[in-house]
Design brief:
Isopropylmalate Dehydrogenase, globular, binds nicotinamide-adenine-dinucleotide, two-stranded antiparallel ribbon, binds manganese (II) ion, binds 3-isopropylmalic acid
Length: 354
């Protein structure tokens, strides 16, 4: 099992260090894992003047799975768009065909009171957001800057989805819903956008192949509201790239912190890239403050989804549950009475629990 590890920028290297300790533990206990490091984002720009160096592309293509920290930082914000760290991430998603992004928002019982909502609203929440990851306004052409007739500058992007792109992500969503509670909510903006009207038509058509799944549709503005009003009404949410980006950050706060949310981005063959949903958190980087659990849970997802190592995946997840029940908390999930720890010490606790 070959893993390409791309730490990236900001807190990326700190949280990846802890995830690597988890991999080392699994390897010394007999799992045949090997890994190699590659540069992406600002780190790629520093080493090769490219946020996705050729070597990194080759490394990830040769690997069975990719583990990524985070990219970006204020230092790179004024670079031309093609050189920005975020482009490295978007390009690797596209290069590897990682169209299906699973972002589970699970509330661990110990963290229900760390949520920004009342605990009774989030207790027991187990939500799966399925975000389409290689289409939409993120990649649509044309885009850019131009002058209007009156000579004013304007910026423009193109929201687009083709029928086949919607069909393939919809099938993944129905498959997931079928294995869970048989409830799927597709989120769009079909009251305004042509892209969404097509999205809704195609998802509805695909639903005929899945008679056991109950499909509902919701406008994205309402979904944003419903997520904080009554999140437990949802089981699986299917949505496009930009709506999924926004709704998954919102959902993370139901679980206590964005530092708790892992993700899996899969291609058609279950090869995947695994990363926390958060960014490089420049405000806390280099201070041993970052929560490494989202990254460690991403390792658990990698073991389950790409390597089919269900037992090892559960071992990692159980270790995370154990450290939470022992009261270890990084500052983002800290509450009076619990044990405040840093990134490294949280890693220590996970390794000990394993
Ligand atoms: P962010 O997710 O980096 O941070 C938002 C807030 O959450 C910050 O207050 C941060 O301290 C906190 N936070 C994030 N992860 C945390 C963790 N593990 N533990 C504790 N607290 C955590 O979002 P941002 O500030 O909008 O973006 C910062 C940079 O990251 C930007 O350059 C952005 O483009 C990039 N970004 C990258 C990714 C990615 O690599 N997948 C995702 C989002 C943003
Ligand atoms: C995410 C991030 C990325 C996205 C950025 C950094 C390109 O916000 O993974 O959620 O918008 O997809
Ligand atoms: Mn995001």
């Amino acid at each position: 099992m070959k893993i390409a590890i791309l730490p990236g920028d900001g807190i990326g290297p700190e949280i990846i260090s802890q995830a690597k300790r988890v991999l080392q533990t699994l390897r010394s206990d007999g799992l045949s894992l090997e890994w190699e490091l590659g540069a992406i984002g600002g780190a790629g720009y520093e080493s090769s003047k490219d946020p996705l160096p050729e070597d990194t592309i080759n490394l990830t293509k040769a690997a069975d799975a990719v583990l990524l920290g985070a990219v970006g930082g204020p230092k790179y914000d004024s670079l031309p768009r093609a050189m920005r760290p975020e482009q490295g991430l978007l390009r690797i998603r596209k290069e590897l065909g990682l169209f299906a992004n699973l972002r589970p928002a699970v509330v661990f019982p110990e963290l229900a009171s760390a949520s920004s909502l009342k605990s009774e609203l989030v207790e027991g929440l187990d939500l799966m957001i399925l975000r389409e990851l290689t289409g939409d306004i993120y990649f649509g052409q044309p885009r850019g800057r131009r002058q209007t007739e009156s000579g004013e500058d304007e910026g423009f992007d193109t929201m687009r989805y083709s029928v086949s792109e919607i069909e393939r992500i919809a099938r993944v969503a129905f498959d997931i819903a079928q294995k869970r509670n048989g409830k799927l909510c597709s989120v769009d903006k079909a009251n305004v956008l042509d892209t969404s009207i097509l999205w809704r038509e195609v998802v509805t058509k695909i639903s005929e192949e899945y008679p056991t799944v109950e499909l509902t549709h919701m406008y994205v503005d309402n979904a944003a509201m419903q997520l904080v009003r009554e999140p437990k009404q949802f089981d699986v949410i299917l949505t496009g790239n930009i709506f999924g980006d926004i709704l998954s950050d919102e959902a993370s706060m139901l679980t206590g912190s964005i530092g708790m949310l892992p993700s899996a981005s899969m291609d058609v063959n279950r090869k995947g890239l695994f990363e926390p949903i958060h960014g490089s958190a420049p405000d806390i980087s280099g201070k041993n403050l970052a929560n490494p659990l989202a990254t460690i849970l991403s390792v658990s997802m990698m073991l389950k989804y790409t390597f089919n190592e269900v037992e090892a995946s559960q071992r990692v997840e159980s270790a995370v549950k154990s450290v939470l029940s022992q009261g270890f908390r990084t500052p983002d999930i800290y509450q009076a009475g619990s044990k405040r720890v840093g990134t490294q010490e949280m890693g220590d606790a996970v390794i000990e629990a394993m």
